[in-house]
């Protein structure tokens, strides 16, 4: 019967433009440092006090963890380590060293996959399995969350809101793009840091030697400018 036949859907140029614009908008929102659809997000804290949070993503990994810990100990600087569940499971002794040194440990998911377009069950598994590995280190403080590559859209922020978790982004990221040298990393960090900044570095893996080399000059340079280092939790408490 002809009346049962469906007419083929015709996508006009205008309709395609709308779809593309919406896709681009959502992609940009998923990467936004200062906005998400649900829950609490922070990229820095408004304050006149010269305090900053030094944060590290990924790992722990034998290539860089001990070197970073030794430097932080020598400089008496607390930091927040956003660690991956799979790396903690592989190197539990390194996780314990971070906890024993009284640094803060945050959640960076288990597998470091982009948390966009994933099921709520995937979000829960990635977060909760990593929380479990973090607790095995002996760390007992608050566990903040940082999304891999800063990507978040619907399912992840909704889960975090429902569980009263803060999404911690950053406003200084000198080594996230490309392979900058240590000098460039230092210069960009000192240039961009301001009171209340959250600094993101990636010093853990073998290929991140330049980030490790930059760490001491960054700490020295910020101290000379009057900055004091605190954990993310301490920085959030200043809001």
What does this structure look like?
This protein is an alpha/beta fold and 239 residues long. Helices cover 43% and strands 12% of the residues. The chain is built from 9 helices and 7 strands; from the N terminus they run αββαβααβααβαβαβα. It has helices spanning 13-31, 65-75, 85-90, 92-100, 120-136, 155-162, 182-192, 209-224, 232-237; strands at residues 40-42, 51-57, 80-83, 104-107, 166-168, 198-201, 228-230. The strands form 2 sheets. Strands 2, 3, 4, 6 and 7 form a 5-stranded parallel sheet that branches. The chain has a two-stranded parallel sheet with strand order 1-5. Strand 2, helix 2 and strand 3 (80-83) form a beta-alpha-beta unit. It is globular, with a radius of gyration of 20 Å. The N and C termini lie far apart (67 Å).
What are its keywords?
239 residues; alpha/beta; five-stranded parallel β-sheet; two-stranded parallel sheet; 9 helices; 7 strands; 43% helix; globular
């Amino acid at each position: 019967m002809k009346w049962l036949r469906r007419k083929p859907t015709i996508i006009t140029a205008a309709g395609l433009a709308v779809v593309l614009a919406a896709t681009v908008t959502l992609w940009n929102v998923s990467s936004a440092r200062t906005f998400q659809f649900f829950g609490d997000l922070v990229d820095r804290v408004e304050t006149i006090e010269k305090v900053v949070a030094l944060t590290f993503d990924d790992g722990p990994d034998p290539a860089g963890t001990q070197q970073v810990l030794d430097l932080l100990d020598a400089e008496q600087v607390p930091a927040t380590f956003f660690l991956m569940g799979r790396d903690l499971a592989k190197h539990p002794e390194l996780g314990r060293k971070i906890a024993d040194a009284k640094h803060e440990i945050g959640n960076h998911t288990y597998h470091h996959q982009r948390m966009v377009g994933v099921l709520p069950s995937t979000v829960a598994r990635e977060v909760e399995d990593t929380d479990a590995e973090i607790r095995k280190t002996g760390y007992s403080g608050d566990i903040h969350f940082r999304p891999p590559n800063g990507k978040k859209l619907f399912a992840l922020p909704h889960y975090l809101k429902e569980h009263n978790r803060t999404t911690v982004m950053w406003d200084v990221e000198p080594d996230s793009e490309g392979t900058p040298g240590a000098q460039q990393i230092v210069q960009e960090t000192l240039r961009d840091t301001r009171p209340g900044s959250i600094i993101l570095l990636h010093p853990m893996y073998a290929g991140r030697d330049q980030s490790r080399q930059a760490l001491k000059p960054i700490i020295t340079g910020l101290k000379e400018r009057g900055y004091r280092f605190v954990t993310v939790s301490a920085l959030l408490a200043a809001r």
